[in-house]
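Recap from last week: sequence in, structure out.
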Amino acid sequence: MDANIFVHETEDKAKYLNNQQYDLTIIGAGPAGATAAMYAARGEAKVLVLDKAPGTGALALTHKIANYPGMMEEMTGEELVTKMRQHAKSFGATFVQTHVQGIMNGEDMKSIFTTDGIIQTKTIFIAIGARGGRKNKIIGEDTFVGRGVSYCATCDASFYKNKTVAVIGDNEEAVEEAMVLSKFADKILFYIPGKTLAGSLSIDTLKDNPKIIIKEKTKIKEIKGTDTVEGIVTAEDEEIKVDGVFIYLSGNQPNTEFVSSIVDTTEDGYIKANEYMETNIPGIFAGGDIRKPPIKQVVIAASDGAIAAMSVEKFIHKKSSVKPQYS
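Predicted structure tokens:
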């Protein structure tokens, strides 16, 4: 992935987040989000794209793509989504890596709350995919959420200064969050459920950090404690004392808790949107796997992104109908 696409550093993020107003802010930088950014920015909208872990989406982790129109050579999903992001950036879209905590609907402007600041935006396109939630939680996980179980080291790492924590996961988000934790915790036990990290990620990044101890092919079956987390139990019944557990495991349910109180969702958490990607809230759109398409394909997600961008233009300029970009 081109490291220049996303703004990573906290001091640089401030100029794009706090006290800034956007025409469109996109949550998710996969094929739907990147395509929407390209179309909207090409239409001269001021566009911001937010993603907490750009390398963990379904496309980014796909080993081979050979059926995307116009791309006759085989490539990895990461290569394809990077090209999409570069295309959007070439038209002026800004990409920032941050964690979205919630949104608030306003009469004229909407607010997006992140770990790095608050964004004011006329419209929002939610394109976070459907890999966030899990049906099969670890025993004790729900019990200790907020009391030792966390899903965001950027938010909670400072609470674990000089302590021992466990990180469970195999994706880019897990790796980056472990590095954040290493600035505070004394020891990070990094549990990889499988043989190695997902996709093209290298385990060397972790091995170079003296605070991180890698535990490959180790699954955690229980999180234990009284008032707060006190330890974990592996699948082999080994008990390990830890002060906190950070979980980055992908699943087959969308992680829409941060917007479910605002927009309508299905019983299994997908966002309800019509053929124009409109939700029940004017100015908030959703597309890609988050709206549960009948078939999950990159080209379908990209199509949703294009439609969303043109629907955004209709909304902002109060047009009577959606107008396509012909040239």
